[in-house]
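User: For my dataset I need records formatted as: sequence, then structure tokens, nothing else. Please produce one.
Assistant:
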Amino acid sequence: MDQAVSVNADRDMPYESEGQRSRWRNWSGFWWLGLCNNFAYVVMLSAAHDILKQQQSHNSTTPTPAPVGNSSRYDCNPVSTAAVLLADILPTLVIKFSAPFFIHQLPYGFRVLVCVATAITSFLMVSFSSTVWMSIWGVIFASVSSGLGELSFLSLTVYFSRDVLAGWGSGTGGAGVAGALLYSGLTQASLSPRDTLLVMLVVPIAMMISYFFLLVFPPTFPQWKCSMAESVRGGDSNNRRPLLGDCDDEDEEWEKSNEEDKATGPLSFIEKLHIMKGLLKFVFPLGVVYFAEYFINQGLLELLYFPQFSLTHAEQYRWYQTLYQVGVLVSRSSLCCVKIRSIWVLALLQFVNAAVLTLAVYFHFLPSAILVFVIVLYEGLLGGAAYVNTFYFISKETGDREREFAMAAASVGDSLGIALSGVAAFPVHRYFCSL
């Protein structure tokens, strides 16, 4: 009998080993997808100061008086880096608002090819740009790639076990560090911004390889077909609480949502609107967090220049962005260690950061860039934690049938906050530069 048990155990071991190998490949695949998807977006923000400076110099064919902004007490570009931020986020916002209602009609494989093509186009256009508007169009293509990719890959996670969310979150954080650090390091090593962007063309190719060759798809996965039935394929429905329910009647709502999960077929338009209403408790605080942090990044950091510091203005700006992304990487990789459901707390702390740095820009009470480095690192920790915990709890608390749509629709929260911060940064930049 003992021998029979041993034989059965030996037979099971290859299957267990193969299952573990598949889970590791899927986690790694989503990590690389997160990194490649956000890479172009991050690089464009890191290059924002250089893009505007470069176009300013290209457009100056004859000596001209210094811009009005340079006569102020701040070292300002004539145009705020928020212009690059808006070009980098508005197309994403449009996609995230509209696509959840029809994106299931496009196969996942086709979406990935579109993401790769638009990312390559963005790097090429910004590299060879000779005008501000050509650069902005390049940034817009990066935004289309990032927005469509985030929407699609978050939806894709429902076909796999829930731990791939941790891989995706960590990878998006890694994109911040890799993109900002590579751009800062290569440009500081005397490589021109144009050549630096051309080197980064390898990243969209890595996205395609990660998706088509690294992920282990379920046999029924609709790779080149429309996703008609919106039911869950991964995750743990036993640990789920109803997204749309009231916490005071949790048991009753849990039973009700179980009955709802028995329904099959695609969600109706009315059902999707109802789900979006239930998502507001997650989406709104996430948007607040991102409004505050991108108001800092694109509205204030350019103005926090310390002339006596060892780094130039452009170098200080690049390393602000890099340290912010380090904080994002750490917190987006923390899901296996700590989970935070109270996103409102993170939103409040991020607003405190924005208020402190706004006062610092006006009153100049920070003695060194070192303190700003510490603050932006902490800012990144808050932002990354808000992102990864929001999608973790949405995945956990949505019903089986609604999860794929909910993951896509909730992605609008951070983009809406970023877009609003870009709009707010323009008058702030103009005000400070006029002093």
